[in-house]
Amino acid sequence: MDELVHRFEPSPNFNDRASPISMVVLHYTDMKSADEALERMCDEEAQVSAHYLISRTGEVIQMVSEEKRAWHAGASFWRGTKDVNSASIGIELDNDGHQFGYKPFPRAQMEALIPLLARIIEEHDIARSNVVGHSDVAPARKVDPGELFDWEWLAKLGLAIRRPDIPLGDPFENDGAFYLALERYGYDITDGHKAVEAFQRRWRPNLIDGMIDGQLRAMLFHLLLERDRGNAR
Question: pTM above the 0.90 mark?
Answer without folding.
Answer: yes
